[in-house]
């Protein structure tokens, strides 16, 4: 006899075949211990899991799931559990809110803040940081955040420039802050040349081109050093 002559049997001798004993069903036994995590559902006390079974774990209180790490194990065909990285860690809560500032875009996207993580804040468009110290906060070992200095101050502009024979809507004691609008007007008989309004922004110009000149329709001529030669047709 040959082995091929004994399908489903052991070849014991050249003359005899013995029945092959059935293979024990494959399983993975009880769940492994996962650091700072517990299995979900009622699987914790289960003693046997068939091949292909999957079990998902959750972090215990005080720990948070690390992003991009798996929290699920599977019973493999070799009757062993798949490996699982240590996916639970200690994380600070979401960083504190700060007046006139927002978390940087990259820090806003995070959902796990490990100890010693430092986040950065950016001033609102209407505010600016006038110091060399960046507004930041760091996650401490006790899972609290360091205090964030209030370094974002409202943007302010210098007073609008004065113009001869004209005035603007502001006053000498007024603070011209971000978003303030100032309007220029001229004395009667004069015409405004240039931009008649100024807006306080991060890149406000000085509006040097604005001035009051003689209105040709009123006859033109000299006015304390200001002279505009008016065409004859403009006086008609």
TrEMBL record:
Residues 26-90, 91-154, 155-218 form the Sushi domain. CDD domains: CCP (cd00033). Keywords: Disulfide bond, Repeat, Sushi. Disulfide bonds join 157-200. InterPro entries: SEZ6_CSMD_C4BPB_Regulators, Sushi/SCR/CCP_sf, Sushi_SCR_CCP_dom. Gene3D superfamilies: Complement Module, domain 1 (2.10.70.10). It comes from Cyanistes caeruleus. This is Sushi domain-containing protein.
């Amino acid at each position: 006899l040959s082995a091929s002559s004994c399908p489903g049997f052991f070849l014991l001798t050249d003359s005899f075949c013995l029945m092959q004993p059935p293979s024990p069903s494959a399983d993975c036994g009880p769940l492994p211990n996962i650091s700072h995590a517990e299995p979900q559902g009622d699987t914790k006390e289960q003693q046997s899991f068939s091949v292909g079974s999957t079990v998902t774990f959750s972090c215990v209180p005080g720990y948070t799931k690390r992003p991009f790490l798996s929290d699920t194990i599977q019973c493999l065909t070799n009757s062993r559990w798949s490996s699982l990285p240590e996916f639970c860690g200690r994380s600070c809560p979401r960083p504190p809110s700060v007046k006139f500032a927002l978390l940087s875009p990259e820090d806003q996207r995070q959902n796990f803040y490990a100890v010693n993580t430092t986040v950065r804040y950016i001033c609102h468009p209407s505010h600016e940081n006038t110091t060399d110290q960046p507004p930041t906060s760091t996650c401490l070992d006790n899972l609290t955040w360091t205090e964030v200095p209030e370094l974002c101050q409202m943007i302010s502009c210098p007073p609008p420039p004065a113009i001869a024979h004209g005035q603007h809507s502001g006053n000498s004691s007024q603070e011209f802050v971000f978003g303030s609008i100032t309007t220029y007007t001229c004395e009667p008989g004069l015409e405004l040349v240039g931009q008649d309004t100024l807006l306080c922004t991060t890149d406000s110009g000085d509006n040097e081109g604005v001035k009051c000149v003689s209105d040709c329709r009123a006859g033109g001529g000299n006015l304390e050093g200001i002279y505009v030669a008016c065409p004859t047709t403009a006086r008609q």
